[in-house]
Amino acid sequence: MEPSQALNAGPRSDAILSVVIGAGAVAGAGILSLALVRLGPISGHMALHIGSMSVVAPFAAMALVHRHGSYLAAVGGKELWLATLVQMGLLWASHSPPIHHVAHASAVGFSALHAALFLAAVAFWTSVMVATARWQTMFALLLSAKLACLLGALLIFSPRVLLAAPPAHDHHALTLSAALADQQLAGLLMIAACPLSYVLTAIVLAAKTVTGFERVPAPAFQALRR
């Protein structure tokens, strides 16, 4: 086997394994968090975001790759950065106070918001699985983690309430301090999910890449084997 062939052997399976490990870690941490922490309206919605974007979406993307892998490899691999920017743009926009309030004012807006975030996440994880440029894939994962964690930090350290509880849940946010604590918990959930999804996926993919390099014989030794 040529070195280039060895380096490219099984990149899709390595990426899928990395994503599955990250999604499984988020799912496990989520189950533990739900058992230990009582979520409010904002933190509950954040948990829903995290579950749909970091657990359900990766497995949906894996099903798409399994069914339409050859087509997606030609299309999705070229759209990694577009999918990255769209997902992070939607994530930040959906948590901006104006869009958040409008989206949560009705069931239709709430469903449309979650559907848009879910589809963007499916496109992102699909691109991660089919992209052939591994180092770009890892950089896209780390950039996504940084932007998501920055949003979580903003919710944690904001001195005022940015995301008010939806009208249907006003009775849960009785005081300003309770609303601020709920917002901070939402930020903590996001801060916890970022390393377990994007960063862990990048780490596992990097480890698979490095070990793949180590398995490839150096050119000088290949000449001796002939």
Task: Please describe what this structure looks like.
The protein has 226 residues and is an all-alpha fold. The protein has one domain. Helices cover 81% and strands 0% of the residues. The protein contains 9 helices and no strands. Helix 2 runs antiparallel to helix 6, helix 2 runs antiparallel to helix 8 and helix 3 packs parallel to helix 8. It starts with a helix and ends with a helix. The N terminus and C terminus are likely disordered.
Q: How many domain units?
A: 1
As a percent range, the share of helical residues equals: over 70%
- Main pleated sheet: none
Number of helical runs? Answer: 9
Measured distance between first and last alpha carbons: 12 Å
Task: Give the SSE map.
Elements: H1 3-8, H2 11-36, H3 41-75, H4 80-94, H5 97-103, H6 107-130, H7 134-157, H8 176-215, H9 219-225
Helix pairs in contact: 2-3, 2-6, 2-8, 3-6, 3-8, 4-6, 4-7, 7-8
In short:
It is built from nine helices and no strands. The protein is mainly alpha-helical and 226 residues long.
Descriptive terms for the model:
226 residues; mainly alpha; 81% helix; 0% strand
